[in-house]
Amino acid sequence: MSSFERVGDGYSLDLTLDEALILINLVEQLLELLGEGDFFHHYDSSDPLAQLLTMPSEIVMPDDPVLLRLLPNAYTDPEAASDFRRYTEPQLRGSKQKNLRLVREELTILVDENHGGVIEELDSGVWLKALNDLRIALSVRLEISENSFEKFELLGEDDPQKPIYAVYFWLGWLQENLLGLLQ
Hints:
Helix content is 62%, strand content 9%. The protein is mainly α.
């Protein structure tokens, strides 16, 4: 089974080809949902100052529940939430995209060159953030709750949800494994 390991002052991750391909698929899906760097299509650029600063004058709150969880409102008041989103969402979204792209790049190199194996000298912070975002996305889609593991165990082997739950719990194990090394 895959695991992170401490190597000198850094960290490595040993993955099978299938595990690497699953992670690439998840990362690409989340990058697509986040807009893969093109998220300014959701704003109104009628404000001249915003145009000058290449800052959106307003960013529309996302409709997708995963995006609402990854890019939450900071305030219940719609106007305050919109203002806060305007100043913070581009950087937050960009940071999430950057982390996911770095993880995808490392996974793609691993698959292309080795067909699985060890990713050496990875950035633990980037990987931890990317794994967290992937888990959040899956938890929203699966509607994870306190009794979700019991639900997973009761699913039949032919249930199409079973592998998705398994990936969610595997990502949690990877995240826990890496956190344990960082302590």
